[in-house]
Amino acid sequence: MAFNEQLANRIREQLKFFPETFTEKRMFGGLSFLYKGKMTVGIIKQELAVRIVSDKMEIELAKPTVRPMDFTKRPMKEFVYVSNEGIKTETELLHYIELGLEHAKSKL
């Protein structure tokens, strides 16, 4: 299954600004970016997938460009999809990368 390579390149460019080291791994039929083995953000088809700490889920899900990740046909805990409309700018993309990194660090 193909994923949005342009979005992958945008994420790679943003990750250069972080002192943390990220790795890439193919997951969910797409591409994921991991911090110390924990998924932060990824790309599934054309959408951004983000892991978010549970106390911020309600805030993010209230946005029209964010929906629960239902890859398995059921909402997955602490995962959301963000449409391309929600990450038009690098600032918006950075917001979701930071949320994903926060989640990863909370699980270490």
Distance between the termini: 30 Å
Q: How many beta-strand segments? A: 6
Coarse structural class: alpha+beta
Note the main sheet.
Answer: 6 strands, antiparallel
Please report which band the strand proportion falls in: under 5%, 5-15%, 15-25%, 25-35%, 35-45% or over 45%. 25-35%
Total number of helices: 3
Q: On the 0-100 scale, what is the average pLDDT?
A: 95
Uncertain runs: none
Major beta sheet, strand line-up: 1-2-3-4-6-5
Give the radius of gyration: 12 Å
Give the % helix: 25-40%
Tell me the series of helices and strands, N- to C-terminal: HEEEEHEEH
Q: Give the overall shape, derived from the CA principal axes.
A: globular
Give a structural overview:
This protein has 108 residues and is an alpha+beta fold. It is globular and about 30 Å long. Strands 1-2-3-4-6-5 form a six-stranded antiparallel β-sheet. The mean pLDDT is 95. The longest helix has 17 residues, at 90-106. Helices cover 31% and strands 29% of the residues.
In short:
The chain is of the alpha+beta class and 108 residues long. The chain contains three helices and six strands; from the N terminus they run αββββαββα.
For the structure shown, list the relevant keywords.
108 residues; six-stranded antiparallel β-sheet; 3 helices
